[in-house]
Amino acid sequence: MRKNLLCLAFAFILFLCQIVIWTAFFKPSAEESIEILNEGWEVIYNDTVYENIKLSALRRLIGHGTHKGDTLLLAKDLDALEGMDSPTIFFETRFSAWRLRFGGQEISNRYYDYLDKNRYIGCENHFITLPSSTGKVRLEIELKVNEDGAYSYYEAPVLGDYRNVIKYLAYRDFFVFMASAFLIIFGLMFFAITLGFRSTLPEIKMQTFSSLLFVTLGIWFLTQFRLLSLFVNTHGHETELEYISLYLAVPIMYMVIGSMQDYLHYKPFIVFASTSTVVALAPILIHALNLDHMNEYLGIYQFNALVLACFMISMLIRDIKTGKITNSQAIQLAGMIVLTISFVINVFFYYLEVVGVYEQILLSKVAVPIGALCMVFAALINYYIYISDSYARKKENASLAHLAYADGLTGLPNRSKFEQYLTDLDKSDKNYCILSIDLNGLKSVNDRSGHLIGDRYLLEFSKALRKSAPEDSFIARIGGDEFVMILTGNSLNKAEDVATKLSRELELYNAADKRIKRSAALGYAYRHEAAGADYHDVYLLADQRMYANKSAMKIRARHNA
Asked: Who has the most CB within 10 Å: 247, 367, 440, 540?
């Protein structure tokens, strides 16, 4: 097991290394330069003018975040754009209608018609192609804010050739993209695998809910970093998908915890999980009914997540005290704790940004993807240990069942299995044939040559019996030298064939080893010959015919002597 766990760890580290290598590959070279337009802006915030400032310092100058109805005009003089094949500016808007002018000419605008109707405007990334210019040209970006707290910080636009801008963004967000894609693909595959094992391993619900959590987190990362719209036309709903996936993460985590320790029948857990689900679904429903916007309930979600963390810690402490936590569950919980800590880091820096103390750093933004990958690794280890233990238990149970119903020497079913098999047959209306088979001369072999040779005789006979039996027949050893075979279905009328093949197989053994004269007496009877009776009567009739056959064989032997 240790070797396999090391392989999992190596694969996980290799995946992270690949991300680092590919990130380095996408790093723009000096020839593929882009310009991050952070400095030299003139900003008009409502009626207040700020000259020659950095966008990263604007929040501190204003002193507070933006409010609904605020207007910002960001203006900057750009140098000539002659050297670019396709000059492109990339910028982000948050809950705002926007307009872009270049050289006094309006190039693009969006969402102004949404303002009067109070329609929802999300957060988006924009790529706008600019016309070439031979001298300095004034760039203006106008923002009409439609939500309170839309801008706690201001992301600097990026200018460059279209290819270079795309490559820069790929470099900047490659880790998040790879982590998101991995979570979604792995989550879907893991979900399919767990569904496949659900019928044979009913305790696998925890892994099923974990896979749903991975998919949900993957979607959240893509939408939070505005990456999904690069590949799929979200029709302006990317931010709504971001908040829906974020809000659903907490209820799904409750289900992971609940199925881990079977809290699904524990009343306090049901109360917490049900309340959390209502809290998560209510903003989504309110948004869908256009009564309010779901991003307004982010604080409630964060409180909901805090309650989850406290509940998880309290349950964890209780289960550790009572000794209910298994090794595999401890690993899964460790992954969930890392994910929870990453959420805390993310929320901490988010509120530092909201109050204007400190801008979110890259580590805080990728903390949750890193935490999610750690949880995936923990889930893989948990899954491996769980499956290994489950199959070990099944193998052990199967072994015990085999010992209970199998003959220790030959491995054939024993008398108990024979009786159970025929009892089940008697419950149906199927016809069957019982062959009573008695091994000749076993006692004399034991007395003359010893029990080791006698055991060898029994093993050779059981092999010959298996070779002579039709595929769908049932064979058992029910006594020292007593064997039975039951024929049904297409093999029902093959008793004589069995007797012929068995005699031929025994002769082959006799020719190879003349120390033992191997032979067997055989008699058979059909169910319909003992109409209205049970299998005991059918077996008794077959046994009588076997003894008649044994007597005939003895007479022939004396006559030949």
From this structure: 247
Determine the topology of domain 35-156 in CATH.
Jelly Rolls (2.60.120)
CATH of domain 2-26+170-399: 1.20.1070
Q: Which residues pair with 437 in a beta bridge?
A: 483, 522
Give the span between the Cα atoms of 96 and 236, in whole angstroms.
12
Domain ranges of the chain: 2-26+170-399, 35-156, 415-560
Unique residue bearing structure tokens 């605008």? 109
Closest CA to 256 of 300, 297, 316, 323: 316
**Residue 118: CB partners within 8 Å, gap ≥ 6?**
none
Instruction: Please provide residue 517's backbone torsions phi and psi, each rounded to the nearest 5 degrees.
Output: -95, 105
The angle, 0 to 180 degrees and rounded to 10, between the axes of the packed helices 495-512 and 451-468 is: 140
The set of long-range contacts for 415-419, using a CB threshold of 8 Å and a minimum separation of 24, is: 415/476, 415/478, 415/479, 417/476, 418/474, 418/476, 418/478, 418/484
CA separation for the pair 417, 66 (Å, rounded): 79
- Alpha carbons 366 and 176: distance in angstroms, whole number: 7
Question: Contact, 58 vs 43, CB < 8 A?
Answer: yes
Annotate 265-277 with b (16+ C-beta within 10 A) or e (fewer).
eeeebeebbeebb
Where does the pLDDT of residue 201 fall: very low under 50, low under 70, confident under 90, or very high at 90 and above?
A: low
Q: Which amino acid, residue 433? A: C
Helix (H) or strand (E) holding 426: helix 415-426
Is 269 in a helix, a strand, or coil? helix
Task: Give the range among 280-294, 386-400, 533-547 with minimum mean pLDDT.
Answer: 386-400
Give one DSSP letter per residue of 502-553, joined into a string.
Answer: HHHHHHHHHHH-TTS---EEEEEEEGGGGTTS-HHHHHHHHHHHHHHHHHHH
521-539 tens-digit pLDDT: 999 999 988 866 788 889 9
Q: Report CA dihedral (419, 420, 425, 426) to the nearest 10 degrees.
A: 70
CA-to-CA distance for 44 and 50, rounded, in angstroms? 6
The answer as to CATH 1.10.260.40 being correct for domain 415-560 is no
Helix, strand, or coil (residue 252): helix
